[in-house]
């Protein structure tokens, strides 16, 4: 990113696009989040709304909607929630958004050795919301100078710095 380059950091990142559709006052409203494992679709109840989201499209940074990706999400819904029909989502605009993805699929998490006053927590890809609580806990520990509750060696934000220097 422009910011990491300005700071002299090597944080390779790629955008991974995801899609979702959100229905207000759905015919069925589960009370807990779930995942359609085979379809790779996340189900998130939010008040009186229900969101179905998924996919990971590596296609550069753009705001175009890929109808095939959205249809894949919609086709999965009746398989898990038989009360729903694909037509129930007619007129609902799909949403798309970019997720920050590192080359190895692991987030960047920890204090940069290159910029000691900088703590980095990014690149969580599809797991950003799910990992937010533990990420916050780890960032808090790093800020306080305490050891994190888990080993974050593999998440070192400087792990690509040596590769950049060698090339």
Brief sketch in words of this structure:
The protein has helices at residues 2-6, 67-80, 128-143, 161-166; strands at residues 14-24, 34-36, 41-46, 49-57, 95-101, 108-111, 119-122. The chain is α+β, with helices and mostly antiparallel strands. The longest helix has 16 residues, at 128-143.
Considering the chains and any ligands shown, give keywords for the structure:
single chain, 167 residues, alpha+beta, D-Amino Acid Oxidase, Chain A, domain 2, 2 domains, 5-stranded antiparallel beta sheet, two-stranded antiparallel ribbon, 25% helix
Low-pLDDT ranges: none
- Give me the Rg, rounded: 19 Å
Strand order of the largest sheet: 2-3-4-1-5
Structural class: alpha+beta
CATH class identity of the largest domain:
Alpha Beta
Biggest sheet statistics: 5 strands, antiparallel
CATH superfamily of the largest domain: D-Amino Acid Oxidase, subunit A, domain 2
Overall tally of domains: 2
Beta-strand content bin: 25-35%
């Amino acid at each position: 990113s422009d910011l990491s380059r300005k700071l002299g950091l090597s944080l390779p990142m790629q955008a991974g696009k995801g899609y979702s559709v959100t229905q207000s006052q759905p015919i069925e409203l589960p009370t807990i989040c779930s995942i359609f494992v085979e379809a790779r679709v996340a189900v998130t109840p939010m008040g009186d709304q229900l969101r179905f989201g998924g996919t990971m499209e590596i296609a550069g940074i753009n705001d175009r909607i890929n109808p095939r990706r959205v249809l894949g999400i919609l086709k999965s819904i009746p398989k898990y929630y038989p009360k729903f029909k694909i037509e129930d989502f007619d007129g609902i605009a799909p949403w798309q958004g970019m997720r920050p993805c590192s080359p190895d699929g692991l987030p960047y998490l920890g204090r940069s050795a290159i910029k000691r006053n900088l703590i980095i927590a990014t690149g969580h890809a599809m797991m950003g919301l799910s990992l937010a609580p533990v990420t916050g806990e780890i960032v808090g520990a790093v800020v306080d100078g305490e050891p994190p509750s888990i080993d974050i060696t593999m998440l070192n934000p400087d792990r690509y710095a040596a590769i950049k220097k060698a090339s």
